Amino acid sequence: MTQEADLRFHSQITRNSIALILAGGRGSRLRQLTDWRAKPAVPFGGKFRIIDFPLSNCVNSGIRRIGVATQYKAQSLISHIQHGWGFLDGRFKEFVELLPAQQRIEETWYQGTADAVYQNIDILRRHDPQYVLILGGDHVYKMDYSKLLADHVEKSADMTVACIGIPVAEAGAFGVMSVNNDWRVTSFAEKPAHPTPIPGQPGQVLASMGIYVFNASFLFEQLIHDHDERRSSHDFGKDLIPYLVPRHKVFAHRFFDSCVNMASGVPYWRDVGTIDAYWEANLDLTHVTPDLNLYDEDWPIWTHQEQLPPAKFVFDDDDRRGQALDSMVSGGCIISGSTVRRSLLFSNVQVRSYSSIEDSVILPNVDIGRNVSLRRVIVDKNCMIPPGLMAGFDPVEDRKRFHVTENGVTLITPEMLNQKIHHVR
């Protein structure tokens, strides 16, 4: 197939597809960062939110019909999508449609991932897609879904599961599969205690990324069957996929084949589901050559763009110099006579004089007072850090007020500082 024919093939498939992003999860391992927001709404990378990555992947892949299923504390997520994702043109049947849990089928909230799709089955049918792409809303990665869809069609699959190799030690948090030489899935186990390694790679297993493609009519049939099964927990990984594997054509798709712009030659996919993982993934962006390329003009990450002035650095005295080294500083920030090192500052952060910020992630609208010292800290949105505060140096002392992880990262929220704010974040 020529490149032109290949592009037409991909374009035809994506036009006949609809994506459903499951964005209702709490993400409790992120502790207080998800007390007032769903995990997909957590800020990431200086100006984005986590859900911007699967949404951008859809748009960049040519999939312009997108539903977002919400449930847990979804107001900030809904507001972000309304402000940042209204540019698709309904005249061309392009949309991002919000699908809050609303007991459309029965008087229950979403009981599992499969049930979340089942409860919106009438909406999916109304759009009459040929293929349905099911996505999680809580991972950071860049992927060309058109290649995943083309792989699904070329193999005449009923269902395709995107997969990635992970260490055996991490398998307990994922669905793990085995495949034959044609990449047909031969077994699937959710969070197995004793996973089967990849042949020839004893330290690796093949893990599901929570990204699925279905033929639409097949999906609807299987959702109804699963709904009628009383013993089912109505979850793709626990119930639906293990049921389908021995009975239907379920194939695996290697993420390596559709990952976009691999800076290090290794596919980038992060579950930033813990405080330590979130801190590490954000600070990775400050490196000289980060694993995730946000400067890729061919595959941009779209988001809500506030109209903000450029970052500003003021004062140049020996003891009072506004500067940021090996850091990312977003619009609206003012670094006033302080030093920021190896840190990531989101929008509208003010750092007042004689302060030092190192190896830290500062979320939007934070005001850091004078003579503050922060190291290995995450500061949540809207915090006002009082003058003279020190955090990240003495974990025993920090634990009296803040949350400190096993790896020594300190999380600070307005509630920990006894500051009252509006809880839409």
Any overview of this molecule?
This protein is of the alpha/beta class. It has two domains: 3-286, Spore Coat Polysaccharide Biosynthesis Protein SpsA, Chain A; 312-417, Hexapeptide repeat proteins (UDP N-Acetylglucosamine Acyltransferase, domain 1, 3 Solenoid). Strands 1, 4, 5, 6, 8, 9, 10, 11 and 12 form a nine-stranded mixed sheet that branches. Helix 1 (3-15) crosses helix 6 (145-154). The radius of gyration is 23 Å and the shape is globular. The termini are far apart. The mean pLDDT is 92. GO terms for molecular function: ATP binding; glucose-1-phosphate adenylyltransferase activity. Its EC number is 2.7.7.27. It holds the Pfam family NTP_transferase.
Distance between the termini: 48 Å
Structural class: alpha/beta
CATH topology of the largest domain: Spore Coat Polysaccharide Biosynthesis Protein SpsA, Chain A
Q: Residue ranges: pLDDT <50 for 5 or more in a row?
A: none
Pfam families: Hexapep_GlmU, NTP_transferase
Subunit structure: Homotetramer.
Protein name: Glucose-1-phosphate adenylyltransferase
Organism: Nitrosospira lacus
Question: What does the secondary structure layout of this molecule look like, with pairings?
Answer:
Layout: H1 3-15, E1 17-22, E2 43-44, E3 48-49, H2 52-61, E4 65-70, H3 75-84, E5 95-100, H4 113-118, H5 121-127, E6 131-136, E7 140-141, H6 145-154, E8 159-167, E9 175-179, E10 185-190, E11 204-215, H7 216-228, H8 236-244, E12 250-254, E13 269-270, H9 275-284, E14 312-314, E15 316-317, E16 320-321, E17 323-325, E18 328-329, E19 334-336, E20 339-341, E21 344-345, E22 350-351, E23 356-358, E24 361-362, E25 367-368, E26 373-375, E27 377-379, E28 384-385, E29 390-391, H10 395-398, E30 403-404, E31 410-412
Parallel strand pairs: 1-4, 1-6, 4-5, 8-12, 14-19, 17-20, 18-21, 19-22, 20-23, 21-24, 22-25, 23-26, 24-27, 25-28, 26-29, 27-31
Antiparallel strand pairs: 2-3, 6-11, 7-13, 8-11, 9-10, 9-11, 15-16, 30-31
Helix pairs in contact: 1-6
InterPro entries: ADP-Glc_PPase, ADP_Glu_pyroP_CS, GlgC_bac, GlmU/GlgC-like_hexapep, NTP_transferase_dom, Nucleotide-diphossugar_trans, Trimer_LpxA-like_sf
Pathway: Glycan biosynthesis; glycogen biosynthesis
Subunit structure: Homotetramer.
